[in-house]
Amino acid sequence: MEQAGLVKVVLADPRQLMCEGLQRALDERANLKVVAVARSRAELMAALDSVAPDVLVLNPRLELQGGTALIRDLRKLLPYLPLLTLASDASSDDPVALLRAGAKGYLSKNNDTADLIRAIQKVAEGGLYVSNELSESLAEELCAGLRTNSFARLSPREAEVFGFLAHGHTVSHIAQVLQLSVKTVSTHKSRMMERLGLASLSELIQYAITNDLIDLSEAPPVRAPDDGPTPRSLEARRSDQDRTALASEDWLASLLPGGRRS
After folding, report:
1. Of 48, 153, 207, 222, which sits 20 to 30 A from 146 (CA to CA)?
2. Numbers of helices and strands, H then E, in the chain
3. What global pTM score does this model have?
């Protein structure tokens, strides 16, 4: 017979020792029980298919591509399941992006087991939970009038990649222009998309237009490599930029309601 008031928890974290430690700590509580442990996305999906938890405690790093995408998928699959994020590295996860994606709570690596227990109980009751550290940080920014939007939190390189993508450039072309590897540009793109809470290129375009971050009549300058095998004249480069701007404008216009601009 199932205990009344028992909160059933699924733990999802790629670190085995962390899972084992958390499971022991939670199972010591009379009103908490870990019903499944998952160390990968596949294991998590299998667990959620076989048990009906009251709370999911998730390390966003379970998904290499980023926690926000995984949280969105889980919200679509189980929209009423409270999801609590337990970050393993405060520098790699944007708490605001995770909460916007659908998480009901956020704990950093600096929180202890007592904080986790309080957070589980809070979200199980339908509430929201953020760590004191994050609450104080957000309050300080708000009171000081220093809270910036998500775009302002991008690194200079992430913002640069955003600009190129918003104007229709491909990852391979951006890599060539910036003299970076395709893998590096893809990493900047993934981090930027996660920080902004964007799931697709069309959402990026809409975000850029809505926030007045790009001018549809202009494109980022196409920089030629400093030591290219065949240096080209400034006039030729400007001609290339003009063609790129026109092509980008047509491409962007085709994504907007009404089709191409006249």
Report:
1. 207
2. 11, 6
3. 0.54
Residues 6+ apart with CB under 8 A from 229: none
Q: Is 262 inside a domain boundary? A: no
Q: Model confidence at 232, in pLDDT bands (50, 70, 90)?
A: very low
Of 84, 119, 80, the C-alpha closest to 98 is 84
Q: With 0-12 CB in 10 A as exposed, 13-18 as middle and 19+ as buried, what is 10?
A: buried
Among 79-83, 128-132, 147-151, the range scoring the smallest mean pLDDT is 147-151
pLDDT for position 216: 61
Mean pLDDT score of the chain, rounded to an integer? Answer: 78
CB 237 within 8 A of CB 222: yes
Dihedral (Cα; 201, 249, 206, 222), 10-degree rounding: 60
Residues 96 and 25 in one domain: yes
In a domain? residue 1 = no
pLDDT digits (tens, 9 = 90+) for 62-76: 876 668 888 988 999
The structural domain count of the chain equals 2
Task: Tell me the chain's radius of gyration from C-alpha atoms.
Answer: 23
